[in-house]
Amino acid sequence: MTAKRDDTQPQSSPPIQEREVAKWDEEVDVLVLGMGATGACAAIEAAEAGVSVRVLERGWRGGGASAESTAQLYMGGGTPLQKGCGFEDDPDEMYKYLVASCGPGADEAKIRIYSDGSVDHYHWITGHGIHFEPGFQPYEVSTHPGPGQGLSYTGSERAHPYCKIAKPAPRGHTVLKDGQMSGEYMMQVLMRSAAEAGAAIQPDTDAERLVVDAAGEVIGVVARTRGEKQTLRARRGVVITTGGFAHNEEMLRRYAPALHGTTYPIGPAIGDDGSGIRMGMGAGGAAIRMDSGCVTLGFAYGHRDNLRGIMVNAQGQRYINEDVYQTNHGEAALYQQAGEVYLIVDDAIYARPDREAEESSVAWEVNIAAVAQTPEELEAELGMPPRSLSHTIRTYNEFAARGEDPYFHKESLWLQPLQTPPLAAIDLRVGQTAYALFTLGGLHTLPGGEVMDVEGNVIPGLYAAGRTASGIPAQGYNSGLSLGDCTFTGRMAGASAATRNP
Amino acid sequence: MTAKRDDTQPQSSPPIQEREVAKWDEEVDVLVLGMGATGACAAIEAAEAGVSVRVLERGWRGGGASAESTAQLYMGGGTPLQKGCGFEDDPDEMYKYLVASCGPGADEAKIRIYSDGSVDHYHWITGHGIHFEPGFQPYEVSTHPGPGQGLSYTGSERAHPYCKIAKPAPRGHTVLKDGQMSGEYMMQVLMRSAAEAGAAIQPDTDAERLVVDAAGEVIGVVARTRGEKQTLRARRGVVITTGGFAHNEEMLRRYAPALHGTTYPIGPAIGDDGSGIRMGMGAGGAAIRMDSGCVTLGFAYGHRDNLRGIMVNAQGQRYINEDVYQTNHGEAALYQQAGEVYLIVDDAIYARPDREAEESSVAWEVNIAAVAQTPEELEAELGMPPRSLSHTIRTYNEFAARGEDPYFHKESLWLQPLQTPPLAAIDLRVGQTAYALFTLGGLHTLPGGEVMDVEGNVIPGLYAAGRTASGIPAQGYNSGLSLGDCTFTGRMAGASAATRNP
Predict the structure, then answer these.
(1) Which of A257, A286, A450 sits opposite B475 (nearest CB)?
(2) Torsion of the alpha carbons at B90, B96, B102 and B105, rounded to the nearest 10
(3) How far is A197 from chain B (nearest CA, A)?
(4) Which of B3, B239, B260, B337 is CA-nearest to residue A288?
């Protein structure tokens, strides 16, 4: 029973005491760690408040997971783009939808501020060089915007039960470049904007340790830049925006075992190792909801007709209305069905996968588990018990022919009997297709980005935002909510740090 | 965006620095915080190692949740009680079962040591005054031991799929007093044993803060005893055994929102407020798997024939083999079916609840949601869609008549068609019956009880065990696993602290 270290994880969290810092190499007002969308927005807001800002970025130029993303921001409440496309929206409807879809345990205070501030945020974003093309991608066609289409549905707003809880509106605002969704372009704009606002960006720099004073206040950072150690004093605050921990196997195993090994992580491998979350925890910050993840099962992304199929579990039972968004599908399949699910289609809706659409999305394989002429044969082919899948298909067909789904209330738009042979089961089991992942748990913050300790006390000088914090998408996810939250909470944290008087 | 405190939670976690301690009121080798089963076993082991031990207990005499428990310890691998009752068991079978049932992400190192050490642990427990009566409660009759029956099944060992993974054996070892399960009696024996070993027990004392030295080593505790502040130096270590956080609403909301508000907590209200977990976190300890809980839906506890009924969800679908243990039922119903489940029985198996049996268990209400003469009528009464529940019942009956359950593989013992009218749906939805809860997440420890920080480094001088740590039942639960883990890991931590040379 001798004490030993569990040495499977990189070291970065224990803070350094002020007395251990011989001298400060540099001093600024606000230090931002990480130059993704969150860091860029924090830096812009802080620099525009008139204080000196430096962003430490691990990579050679910045961008983070945001630059690899599809550049969707979840905004609403009546943005000019929504209005221009003919949609009414309201902050209250947005609030109700988000509380319902980001739970259980959604952070209602954050969602309130986010919903009420969303139109302003739209103006701030567009005021900093981001353009949204004025068209709408019709829901019936795709959630994947095409050229000219800045707006699309990126959640389950129109699906049961959400459509009963809040009036649906499309809220996915996508940044396009040459007609393609481009996180890369979005980050170029935001990074240029940060530089123009006066924030200094220091690449090739790993923030390794926070520095705290004797009272526990965070006062700086020890970094390593091109091999050299560097001590940086932050007079007003340190804002951690280094992303989540989807690429840290050990953290997944410890905090989110359901996500470990079953999925593949989104974002650049050099980021999202949880270093910022661990630094914050080391300084006394509480990390909450660390088991939560965005899990995407994008089976209808490239081929919308797949929503006319039915999703079934290992017993051949339907378990969800198929028209919920791909993230809700990932959550339901992984957490509730143990990742044992199939999509059943008939020849009328089956299509070979569109490789181009897929490549711009997460790569999901189309493996056919079984093909058969009748429901009974398909059931037998899949090794399902008698009268399981066949009953499901026949009952579904009977009601679908009347435009009804009394079981799960799929919108009538997608209801069509599966009756053109052959029938096929597309294999969406874990291991047979991609369950794309990023993490949603992180440091416990106030809406202003202040990091709280285990007792709910604010740790002076320490801020976190984006996926380093537990934010708007606390448990459930829709596309655009992470970048929406990153840009919004990045701004909040940057402003909070800039205006703090130590 | 001004920083403000989130002041909804009691304060206890930030440690005090050694320099802030003017003088030590007392000095011992090992301080144990909390006198439940974990604390008692830690104290015994440490005292028997020959060092001075003091236990600080919040209540007036100790006992904790253990004293309110059903006194079941999950042990196996071939204990004398198992052998005496004619059962073969093996540490490897126990290990395989526990890895399968305590996942995903079960701590295999801990389960290995626990399984390999279980027979020794049995001897240690019985060597410290605990007696197990030499009979077996037949599985077909109950999992609730009666007079003379120290052994019973308290898990899903015989149920699919576990019976295929590991050879089943009953491993629930229950402490009886006057024929009744008695956590109260078990704690009297363990507390007396601790006193006899030389451990001092100081009641009416709240441990409020850990004391750390400049290097971060835990060196003592600041406590409050009958209103007076007291500083206690621990030369070798502090062992935190204060239980989980089932009674802390704010912690449930932050860390385990799925458990918040849907369940009722087990254990005494004065304990299990997470104070020890928070103290450990404040000293740099990592808390892991904080979303996990034991959730019990004990619908067959007092009336075993209920296993002959079928569990269905809101769509009238079966979703589980009914013969899994009550904790697996709680987990499946709450996490996978949103707490929307019913037990369907017919008149042949229905029985008015046995109030006596219930009272010794968790109180669950028997609310009848619907009664009807036919499956179709019952389905309509419950507002379920056509051909949902009726199809489920008719298909189940058809196979049950042949002794088969091709859907979920319930053991044939429990298969019997539901065909004696009337049929009834017992309402087991959240809010309509008790989902009894305690928490399983806690401090990240090595098998020896050493608390690790966020990076996996051991925090010198700090130990945790029982429900203050994340232990054997990391994600899934069987009865007896908590007390089994508490007594075993309490011993490990007590021994580790006693033998540490600072």
Answers:
(1) A257
(2) 140
(3) 21
(4) B260
Query: Taking 90 as the threshold, does the pLDDT of residue B423 lie above it?
Result: yes
How high is the ipTM of this complex? 0.91
Q: Write the CB contacts of B449 (distance below 8 Å, at least 6 apart in sequence).
A: A1, B42, B239, B463, B464, B465, B469, B489, B492, B493, B494, B496, B497
| Measured distance CA(A126)–CA(A133) in Å, rounded | 11
pLDDT value of residue A4: 41
Q: Which residues contact A380 (CB under 8 A, 6 or more apart)?
A: A372
Q: Which of B429, B329, B418 is nearest to B369 (CA)?
A: B429
pLDDT in tens, A121-131: 999 999 999 99
In b/e form, how buried is each residue of A79-95, taking b as 16+ CB within 10 angstroms? bebbeebebebebebbb
CB contact under 8 A, B104 and A387: no
CB B172 within 8 Å of CB B152 = yes
| pLDDT tens sequence across A427-451 | 999 988 889 899 999 999 999 999 9
The confidence band for A271, taking pLDDT boundaries of 50, 70 and 90, is confident
Closest to A222 in 3D by CA, of A204, A200, A245, A205 = A205
Contact B45, B236 (CB under 8 A): no
Least Cα distance to B488 among B127, B178, B117, B90 occurs for B117
User: Using an 8 Å Cβ cutoff, are A280 and A244 in contact?
Assistant: no
**Beta-carbon neighbour count of residue A124 at 10 Å?**
17
- In angstroms, the CA A99 to CA A95 distance is 6
Residue contact A9–B455, C-beta within 8 A: yes
What average pLDDT score do residues A469-480 get?
Answer: 92
Q: Kindly report the three-state secondary structure assignment for every residue of A59-79.
A: CCCCCHHHHCCCCEEECCCCC
3-state helix, strand, coil in chain B (%, to 5): 30, 25, 45
The residue type found at A30 is: V
Distance CA B68, CA A168 (A): 50
Q: Can you tell me the distance from the alpha carbon of B419 to that of B400, in angstroms, rounded to the nearest whole number?
A: 11
Q: Which has the closest alpha carbon to B405: B309, B326, B314?
A: B309
Residues A367-373, mean pLDDT to the nearest whole number: 95
- Which pLDDT band, with edges at 50, 70 and 90, does A160 fall under? very high
pLDDT of residue A6: 43
CB-based contacts of B349, cutoff 8 Å, min separation 6: B305, B306, B308, B309, B416, B418
- Give strand ranges (E) for A59-203: 72-74, 151-152, 172-174, 176-177, 180-181, 200-202
Q: What is the 3-state secondary structure (H, E, C) of B116-146?
A: HCHHHHHHHHHHCCCCCCECECCCCCCCCCC
What is d(CA B206, CA B185) in angstroms, rounded to the nearest whole number?
24
DSSP E strands: which ranges in A184-332?
200-202, 205-212, 218-225, 228-240, 264-265, 287-288, 293-296, 310-313
Q: How many CB atoms lie within 10 A of CB A109?
A: 11
Q: Indicate the pTM of the whole model.
A: 0.93
Residue A115 has pLDDT above 50, yes or no: yes
Query: Which positions 106-145 of A are in contact with B (Cβ < 8 Å)?
Result: none
Please report, as a single letter, which amino acid is at residue B285.
G
Q: What is the pLDDT of residue A106?
A: 92
How far apart are the CA of B314 and the nearest CA of chain A, in angstroms?
9
Chain A, residues 265-284, CB within 8 A of chain B, namely 278, 281-282, 284
Full set of structural domains in chain B with CATH:
16-68+183-294+436-498 (3.50.50.60), 72-181 (no CATH), 298-427 (3.90.700.10)
A14: nearest CB among B289, B453, B500: B453
pLDDT tens string B243-264: 999 999 999 999 999 998 777 8
Cβ-based contacts of B315 with chain A (< 8 Å): 317-318, 407-408
Q: Which sign, positive or negative, has the C-alpha torsion A455, A458, A464, A470? A: positive
